[in-house]
Specification:
This protein folds into two domains: 3-64, no CATH class; 74-162, no CATH class. Helices cover 60% and strands 0% of the residues. The chain is built from nine helices and no strands. The radius of gyration is 21 Å and the shape is elongated. The N and C termini lie far apart (54 Å).
């Protein structure tokens, strides 16, 4: 496993790995394998940690650095994003019932899952600068937003069914 392999899914480990590498050998090179970068140069208790991470046991890192939060699960990330949509941006179920009657939430969610979001278009009634900001996010963040939009559509359908 190369250090760069941690960058997308485990940015905290990636950052610590680079710092550890710089502290141990004075260089930063994310093309190095975890083994080359740490294991044979490190005689501290961290050597065991990097052996476990190299084997794919990422949780050992979070156990070692107990003060660091473990990454949220997909469901937790989506719930957090949905709460932010409601609380920070005011995108409530009631507003979705008024402004997104034609499956706009699903249209945007589907668009965010494409390789180049925005090529097929977003709903006309959506704010262009917000759409651009969402579409410009990295893939993982777009997945989270898409999941939250799907949850919003389910809430909208539930509200419609109850009324």
């Amino acid at each position: 496993m190369k250090i760069k392999d941690l960058k997308q899914d485990h940015p905290l480990i990636y950052a610590r790995a680079l710092k550890h590498q710089k502290d141990q050998v004075g260089i930063i090179d994310d093309e190095k394998s975890l083994y080359d970068a740490f294991l044979w140069r490190d005689t501290t208790e961290k050597a065991d940690l990097w052996i476990e991470v190299n084997k794919g046991n990422v949780n050992s890192f979070y156990d070692f650095y107990a003060d660091q939060p473990k990454p949220l699960t997909g469901v937790e990330l989506i719930a957090k994003e949905r709460a932010e949509q409601i609380e920070k941006h005011g995108k409530t179920v009631e507003k979705d019932c008024l402004h997104n009657k034609n499956k706009e939430l699903i249209t945007v969610a589907r668009e965010l899952l494409t390789t180049h979001p925005g090529n097929m278009g977003f709903p006309e009634n959506w704010n262009r600068s917000q759409v651009h900001k969402i579409a410009s996010k990295p893939y993982k963040e777009r997945l989270i937003v898409a999941g939250a939009l799907i949850a919003a559509e389910i809430d909208r359908l539930n509200a419609h069914t109850q009324s």
